[in-house]
Design brief:
This protein is of the alpha+beta class. The strands form 13 sheets. Strands 5, 10, 14, 15, 16, 17, 18 and 20 form an eight-stranded mixed beta sheet that branches. A hairpin with an 8-residue loop joins strand 32 and strand 33. The radius of gyration is 47 Å and the shape is flat.
Length: about 1100
């Protein structure tokens, strides 16, 4: 193999390195290229580095990769120009690759096809009905006759914008009839109706509301034929006939219908559904009928009688029903068979010779859920009798002239109970997804002139105007495609010619450019910026050897062309190869290689015992364990000093000093060590007094360590430890002894306070004293910590009673409030204990409570007086804030318990976890006294909260009668539990104060499977009934226990509908234009 001329130099090293380079670089990974580039450092000293070594480090001689040999670009090879995006420009290129513009002709309507409708998000249910109504030729013809003065006088220079519903539907039907577009946008009509395009609604409800709105709008037209077009097309008549079983009196209630809603549950075909709709119903029991002849409630029968049918018969198959168990709607995937020709004569009261209907549309719901899925429509063309499938923008003609439901019946395979599709006889179809059938009444003679719907001239002008805009758009898109293709072809020629100039030939001048810039230059989709080489510069202003993997070496001729066209800089050529960086790297790598050998030698020498008379040096034990790691980190830090960016060497693996997470290992030591031997330095910079943390090593070991750590702290064997640390240690031991003595004295003086024995209580005031003193419980807790561990804790020097006072110096608690729970913040002291506390500690403010016998009365009342006195203003504000916090909570927990027959659940007293008898006794809930109120406030008739205290002082009256004493003892006998014990059958819910009761009922429905209308909720016997009220206003506070009593389910369809409104957060068509009339 012929070697490059520039790499021929005298010596075996150069030839061996070049051969290894050629061998490795055939298809070497980046790591192998990195190792090969620096392999020569083992035999070359830093002062012997030459230009040849520098070029080896920059991989100048690595052979360039050929096309087809690399799957992706070799980042470690600066000469590899394969896999940077050139494959899209070399060879033959498809013109479509130069643009991302679809052929505008694909948006053009095909001949003899219908126009689709754009799905605006979740508006497929709207599109299906619009297509069905459009194919009702008589309805379309009559809509075209509606007066539209704005459209008739419209200026062709501006866009036409309909205003009313009739105008929108009129214009939409005109576009569906004669537009050149493959599909049109119905957003004008959808916006006019106020529909939410992102929420799928009930399709059947939309049909009812829209026809009702259209009927109301057309009734205002002057033409009588237009006023009644909806009734003529869709309206039929039936009556509810009720017959009294007692007197036989028959009463009829006539009514109109626009569609028949047929129950499909338990039926197999359409005839069964219609028969059930008309069958006789018995009215008895609580559902009896009030007979006007009998003047009393009587058992009766009721049925529906059909009197007349419309031209277009809409049959709604009730697939979406309310499920009481889940509280939601569900879809019935029942197979229903229906005929192509339906004879309705047997179902009419007035027998007609012929009353046959022909199937004209089938509306399909894809999916198994009532709240999701997709709507499509199969519609028969009245002119040709061909069937079409309308799926938003896509329209498909059925083969032949027969309805083919196709795969629409295979889309519900996820239903748990799969039923095999029954076979359909000739002239019948079977579906489990059809939810509406549209039948058209057959006439004796079909008038062919009625098959064509003529469009008024003013509508045709509007359609022509839209078609003109569409053709202009098509022409514009075609021009843009042509411009992109022409630009791409020119770029193709440029890239193809310039790419051949990129490789730098041997012996010719070269430069470096970023590989990322080359990729963007070859990627036509991104804007090309100026060439930026500044990221590659080292601290010497030259090309850093670690950044060579991010640059590519190209010919000087190609670089001249690129820089002249795109600009940028600095331009990096052969003179930018940094010899200083290469020399420094050589030195670091050699030290790294030597490090392992020195580590083994130091380890062996350190094991030997230091001989007597030999000079020794103190070394930290942690430093001795980690010195190789520290040396490696130090070498790498010195290496980083040559860089001006925080880049990593290409192909460099994490060193032993760094884990995969980027954290430093410390061989088990807790504290991270920064420099060698710092672990035996004290805070004063001297030798640490902790002899267990250091050891002696020989001078030979220390000399080897000094090579790597020349600035490490040095301590000889004769050097004494830090005198300041020794003095502080002596003082610390003396202070510890003093603390122990202080703790022992304080414990002896306040022994009962420490052990919590013989403590005074407000519930049962001690008879031998009329005054007790108050200190913060925090003070007592901190003092006990010091007594238990005087050597580890700081002594307590003062009593901070000011935290129990308001800013005005008044006390914050009353006697009653301390009985009710505020005592958890304070500790009571006997007078003798108070004297000891005042002697041992600094007290900022004495606080006491006195018992005063009322000498003016003989009823045995006593008064309790605090010093300092109660601050009324601050106390009121404190309680007001407490009340407000209870009503403004967020994400708090409440508990719901299900009750049976007005009693709480069985086994309520047994918690869900076992505990000892004493624990169960301690954790008993305090019984709630009927009518119990806030201790400081009572509720006056006007609703204002007033403080319950006498006018002139903070003294509070308390009856000392037997009843009061018994109540106090009874209440004090049970400790209040601060933790809620969850019972069996009880569930915790997360609620907020601004949440409504209706929303809480929905949460309870999901937790207990009880429908909202079956829920009776109460708190402490108070019923919660206002669904619109917030929980805060209803007095539902955090940790409240809500009782749930569930009613037995009743078969009441009206209640089901109400529950549907409560259970579901959706608002239906509320707020839309469909309800505006």
């Amino acid at each position: 193999m012929e070697l490059p001329r520039r790499l021929r130099w005298n010596g075996e090293i150069g030839i061996r390195m070049t051969l290894s380079f050629v061998f490795v670089c055939r298809m070497a990974p980046r790591l192998q290229l990195e190792k090969a580039a620096w392999r020569w450092v083992d035999t070359v000293k830093p002062e012997d580095v030459t230009q040849e070594h520098i070029e080896l480090a920059y991989r100048i001689a690595v052979p360039a990769c050929k096309r087809g040999t690399c799957r992706r670009n070799c980042k470690g090879n600066p000469n590899c120009l394969v896999g940077i995006g050139e494959h899209t420009w070399l060879g033959e290129i498809d013109e479509n690759a130069f643009h991302n513009i679809d052929d505008p002709n694909s948006e053009r309507r095909d001949k003899n096809t219908f126009v689709g409708l754009t799905n605006l998000g979740a508006t497929c249910y709207v599109n299906t009905f619009l297509q069905v109504w459009f194919h009702n030729l008589e309805l379309r013809r009559m809509l075209y006759l509606c007066q539209n003065s704005r459209a008739e006088g419209h200026n062709a220079e501006s866009d036409y914008e309909p205003k009313t519903i009739c105008e929108h539907l009129q214009y939409l039907f005109a576009l569906l009839q004669n537009s050149n577009r493959r599909y049109i946008d119905p957003s004008g009509l959808v916006k006019a109706l106020g529909l939410d395009t992102g929420q799928q609604q009930d399709a059947q409800e939309f049909s009812k509301l829209f026809l009702s709105l259209l009927e109301d709008t057309l009734s205002k037209q002057k033409d009588p034929n237009l006023q009644n077009v909806i009734q003529q097309q869709f309206c039929g008549q039936f009556s509810y006939v009720t017959v009294c079983n007692q007197c036989g009196r028959s009463s009829a209630l006539p009514s109109r219908f626009y569609e028949l809603e047929l129950n499909i549950q338990g039926h197999k075909n359409l005839t069964e559904c219609i028969t059930e709709f008309l069958k006789e119903e018995k009215l008895d029991g609580d559902n009896r009928y009030f007979c006007e002849s009998c003047q009393s409630k009587q058992s009766a029968t009721r049925r529906i009688k059909l009197h007349s049918l419309p031209r277009t018969l809409n049959l709604q198959l009730m697939r979406f029903v309310f499920d009481r168990q889940s509280g939601h709607k569900k879809k019935l995937n029942t197979f229903i068979s229906f005929p192509e020709v339906l004879d309705m004569a047997p179902f009419l009261e007035a027998k007609e010779e012929k009353c046959t209907y022909e199937l004209s549309a089938v509306l399909i719901h894809r999916g198994v859920s009532a709240y999701s899925g997709h709507y499509i429509a199969h519609v028969r063309d009245a002119r040709t009798n061909d069937w079409y499938k309308f799926n938003d923008e896509e329209i498909e003609k059925m083969e032949g002239k027969k309805l083919q439901l196709g795969i629409e019946e295979d889309l519900a395979e996820t239903v748990k109970s799969q039923a095999r599709k029954p076979k359909s006889s000739k002239g019948y179809h079977c579906s489990r997804n059809a939810y509406m059938l549209v039948y058209k009444r057959q006439t004796e003679e079909e008038d062919q002139t009625q098959m064509n719907v003529e469009m008024p001239a003013f509508l045709q002008r509007l359609v022509d105007q839209d078609n003109k805009k569409f053709e202009e758009w098509c022409s514009e898109m075609a021009d843009m495609r042509k411009q992109s293709v022409d630009k791409g072809k020119a770029k193709h020629v440029e890239v193809k010619e310039l790419y051949e100039l990129l490789p730098a030939q041997e012996g010719e001048p070269y430069e470096f450019v970023p590989v990322e810039w080359l990729k963007k230059w070859l990627d036509d989709s991104t804007a090309i910026k100026a060439i930026d080489n500044s990221q590659f510069l080292c601290s010497h202003g030259k090309l850093h050897p670690d950044r060579i993997g991010e640059a590519k070496r190209i010919s000087h001729k190609a670089a001249e062309i690129l820089f002249s066209r795109y600009g940028g800089g600095p331009r990096i050529d052969r003179s930018f190869l940094c010899g200083d960086c290469v020399t420094r790297r050589c030195q670091v790598l050699r030290l790294k290689n030597q490090l392992n050998e020195d580590y083994r030698e130091v380890t062996n020498l350190a094991k030997a015992q230091l001989k007597s008379g030999d000079e020794g040096f103190w070394v930290g034990k942690a430093s001795l364990r980690q010195w190789r790691q520290l040396a490696l980190e130090q070498l790498e830090e010195e290496e980083e000093e040559t860089k001006h960016t925080n880049c990593k060497t290409n192909g460099e693996k994490p060193t032993s000093a760094t884990t995969k997470d980027g954290l430093k290992e410390n061989d088990g030591d807790v504290d991270e060590m920064k420099t060698f031997n710092e672990d035996i330095l004290c805070c004063h910079g001297g030798l640490s007094i902790q002899e267990s943390e250091r050891r002696l090593v020989s001078a030979e070991v220390w000399s080897k360590l000094k090579v790597y750590f020349p600035n490490a702290p040095e301590f000889t064997q004769q050097q004494e430890a830090c005198q300041q640390c020794m003095r502080l240690e002596r003082e610390g031991k003396e202070n510890e002894a003093l603390n122990r003595m202080m703790a022992s004295e304080q414990k002896t003086s306040l022994l009962n306070l420490f052990h919590e024995k013989n403590r005074p209580s407000l519930q049962k005031w001690p008879q031998d004293t009329d005054i007790l003193y108050i200190v913060p419980l925090f003070f007592v807790d901190e003092w006990r910590k010091f007594i238990r561990r005087p050597a580890k804790s700081n002594p307590v020097s003062s009593v901070g009673n000011s935290i129990l006072l308001c800013p005005h110096g008044g006390f914050m608690f009353t006697y009653d409030s301390m009985l009710q729970g505020d005592a958890q913040h304070i500790a009571l002291l006997w007078p003798a204990e108070w004297e000891v506390v005042c002697r041992l500690f600094l007290v900022d403010q004495p606080i006491s409570i006195c018992r005063i016998h009322d000498a003016t009365q003989d009823n045995g009342n006593v008064l309790y007086h605090t010093q300092p006195e109660l601050c009324r203003e601050c106390r009121e504000g404190f309680i007001f804030q407490q009340q407000r916090d209870l009503r403004e909570y967020a994400q708090a927990t409440v508990y719901v318990r299900k009750v049976i027959d007005n009693k709480r659940m069985i086994k309520e007293a047994a918690p869900e976890f076992s505990m000892s008898g004493s624990e169960a006794e301690d954790e008993k809930e305090e019984p709630k006294v009927e009518g119990e109120k806030d201790p400081d406030f009572n509720q006056s008739e006007d609703g204002a909260k007033r403080q319950k205290m006498s006018e002139g002082s903070s003294t509070v009256a308390l009856s000392s009668g037997p009843a009061a004493t018994t109540a106090a003892v009874g209440k004090s006998g049970i400790r209040r539990s601060m933790r809620h014990r969850k019972l069996r059958g009880e569930k915790a819910l997360i609620v907020s104060a601004n949440q409504t009761l209706k929303e809480l009922k929905i949460q309870i429905m999901h937790a207990f499977s009880v429908a909202p209308f079956d829920q009776n909720l109460s708190i402490d016997g108070r019923c919660l009934t206002d669904d619109s009220a917030t929980l805060g206003s209803l007095g539902v506070f955090p940790e409240s226990i809500i009782c749930l009593k569930a009613d037995e389910p009743i078969a009441d369809y009206a209640a089901m509908d109400d529950a549907y409104q409560v259970c579901l957060p959706e608002e239906g068509f509320k707020g839309t234009g469909l309800l505006g009339h």
